[in-house]
Amino acid sequence: MYDLKALLIGCQGTPRAAVRGELEKLSIDVEAEVSDVDACLAFVAGRPSESRILVVHSGRNSPPDAVERLLASATGRPILVLFDPGYEPVLPARRPSLETIELPFRPDDLRSAIHRFEIQSPQAASRCRTILVLGATEGVGCTSVAANLASELGRLEKGPCILAEQAVAFGRLANYLGIRPKVTLYDLVIDLDHMEARMPEAMALFEDNLYVLVGSYREITPFMITPEVAFKALACAMQLATTVVVDARHHFEEVDLDFAAKSQHVVLVAKPTIPSLHSMRTLLEALLRRGSQGKHYVVINQYVASLDAISRQTIEGHLNEHEVFLVASDPAMAAVESSGRLLRKSAPDSEALRDITTLAHSILGTPPEQPARHTLRESLKRVAQSLNLG
Questions:
Q1: DSSP 3-state helix, strand, coil percentages of the chain (rounded to 5)?
Q2: What is the torsional sign of CA 12, 17, 22, 27?
Q3: Which structural domains are found in the chain, ordered by start?
Q4: How far apart are CA 346 and CA 333, in angstroms?
Q5: pLDDT of residue 72
């Protein structure tokens, strides 16, 4: 599945056999096996590689500074540390290319670690952008923001963008967009061995450069999402697009927080109300404690600019954010949700679309578009259409 190779360091006996077996299932070749960190450093010194994973066993008999020296000498390289029960080495926190697993490990623990390495690798990041859209509370319009953001990113990049949802058991996107794909995310996750091969079947083309991966919609299909499932699905989707936008499920289990912390970009959505802003601050603090590695964007959806409204400055101060994105409360959004069409097709001049496009440009790092100029006749026609007069 991945163009990776592994170097095993100090792995012997049962752990060695188990690691080799799981790597073989993932089509990852074992490049070499060495006895200790010194031998590893000597091996890699003359063989630089961007696709090498270092798998090191750290036990009670290992030199106390062995892993520390490996980390210092292999900065930025993915390192998987296997440690003996009750002996967890002291390691630096918040290092994206470091994973630890206690022995004896479960196969899905190792596989999920490999998937996390893949989605965070420089090669994957240069090939595909990942964006998680997460609501601070329910009912903030997270799906509306995610869908229209994905549409704008596909249009601006002129490349394939995948809009996917995390909700496996019962999704929202199929009913929101009025589509009926034959293959859903649930069909993929119940057969992980064939997920990569079947992933293209599940991609429903919705508009130019926008594909949709939906959760179950014909019936409710209870399913527990594990780290292996979440990260493998993302890794497979990343191979098919330049951008993957994930509409998050409203859960805050360990797997959800880990997924958010590993995403390249995280769009956090709230409403301009005191309870919603309090929840947003709690969510921001939680991601900060976990060492979230991506850039985050705070979006205040359904915003009405008025004398009574909470000001942008007040919101930024409350959340300790230097910039928040305001998405206007727009009647066009309600019309879109009823029609199954997105703003670009149904209301191209809407305030909400303008605000979401600004967010898209910020994520892409591109300057905002200049507003289109309309003749008087075109302007009058658009006004008439908005009033259903013609």
A1: 45, 20, 40
A2: positive
A3: 5-122 (3.40.50.2300), 128-369 (3.40.50.300)
A4: 9
A5: 83
